[in-house]
Design a protein that fits this description.
Blueprint lengths: L5 H10 L12 H13 L8 E5 L1 H11 L6 E5 L5 H5 L6 H10 L1 E10 L2 E3 L2 E5 H8 L2 H7 L1 H11 L6 E7 L2 E13 L3 E3 L2 E2 L11 E7 L3 H12 L9 E5 L1 E14 L2 E22 L4
Parallel strand pairs: 1-2
Antiparallel strand pairs: 3-4, 3-13, 5-7, 5-12, 6-7, 6-12, 7-10, 8-9, 10-11, 12-13
Helix pairs in contact: 2-3, 6-8
Amino acid sequence: MRRITPLRLVGLLEDFGLQVTLAPAAKPAEALALVSAAVADSSSTGLRVVVAGGDGTIHAVLPALEKTSVPLAILPVGSVNVLARELAVPRSLSDAARVAAQGVPRAVDLGRFSGRPFVLMAGLGFDGAVVHTVKGHIKRRLGTLIYLLNGLRLLLSHPPRRFHIICDDKPIETEAWQVVIANASSYTYRWSLAPQAKINDGRLEVCVIPHAGAFKRIKQVAAILLGRHRWAPVNYLSGGRIEIQTDEPVAVQLDGDPAPSTDMAQIEIIPQGLTVMVGETR
């Protein structure tokens, strides 16, 4: 297999007519600083940001792109490429480069979790705990597999928490071991936790997986993996503004990256908050 190098990626983009400025970033903060500077540059008319990476890199640059007209394009070379799959970005880097250069801009929604933007999902509880156990160098080597392994290790031992949720002024209180606020139908790998979610419908889907004993918890997970959500069961709410309180701080993940644990969060939809490049038929 031909090695993926920055210069090769630049060459693919240039083959489709883009003028490219290469801006390598080793850390999320560096990526955000680079994109923020480019967006702020008044001479950047016609600018588009091409992220060669995965969901973590995309998540890092969202604050710079939120509510701007600068489109985001994706070359999916990350460990997990959930947003690329959601947007039907081709897995072939050459085809993805063509979409980056010749695709069409499309507005999609963002979510905001206590001030931080996300594009895919916010998770509280079990998946947050799993994400917090994944180290960067192991993630690069094993990709999705490390999440599965760590998830299996924590599946039966992760404690439930008491959640008080207000979704568009409708309150519920429940004991759950996982709550996900989904902006998109794709969750991870080829699995969906909220099949009804749409990334451009101006709403967020709140997925509540209630507390259950060991056998039922395994059944819940198996049902989700098999796409038989009615067997789980998963309780759903839908709205544009969500408030969450828990009896104790819970682990949090945003777009698959760890975020600070919390016992209180305010989540809201940002309609058409991000512009992305997609294929003409998408």
